[in-house]
Amino acid sequence: MFKQVKVAALSIKSRSWDKAYNADRLETFFRRAARRNPDLIVAPEGVLEGYVSQEAMKEADKAAALLEIAERIDGPSIARFQRLAKGLRTCLCFGFAERIGRSVYNSAVFIDDRGKTCGKYHKHEEPILVFQGARPTWTSRRMRRRLRAFDTPLGRCGIMICADRWYARLARTLVLDGAQYLLVPAYGSKNKAQNRTILARSRENGVPVVEANVGMNLIINRGEVAAFKWGADRITTAVIDVPQPPSTLAARRYEREYLEIREREEWKWLPEKTRLFPPIGRASARRRSATGRSRRWHF
Fold it and tell me: Is the pTM of this model over 0.90?
């Protein structure tokens, strides 16, 4: 059983350190994509501040600027996009530098179509900026201790940010935690190896994957490429099939559908004289149940 969800991926190239410009541009692209009536729109990694963490790692004097530009999860930019999601009645996911105390994390947030933050994710494959007094340090000692999926109106979601996609165990952990689809906000590699890796993460786990990269979008559904678009500032849409979680109700429904299909197929092959009853279906099953008669094959 699957739930069909229409998704859009944005390949926006943002401007380094210009948060106001990037926020305005991100809203413009969200509004453009919303005209296609998607259930979810995904934007790249670090789209708010222009993904400047790598620059801040190389130049120590820019670490303080990163702390200043980083956004708290309840900050004004996040609130702005919460209002936008509610107004567009569309779920939004995008990457940003998140400030927690005097630390900065490479983060992504998922906002539902009512403007509620359903969950966030911190990139694992990138050091964390930590200020101890006025002195900045980059550390992996405070590597995120948790890998968790979270509930959304579209199903349970798992997020991997950019380089996280290379690690099969990371993706598998999210799916084992119940993720029914994976989102990959990225700002990096666009070569064949990364495309094959995204494809592999989908096939390994049996879930759709939506990647929004700077200069490229890739959407995988049922282990195949559903949509691909090269170039910056593009909008790519596709319908993905989100698998329903295991349940007795889902199992019985699939069981019933399978048995009805197989009996109809077998009926076609039987010699006409040997046909005792027509193929079982919901209506005929109810009639037979009322009379107490059971179906038997005679050859």
Answer: no
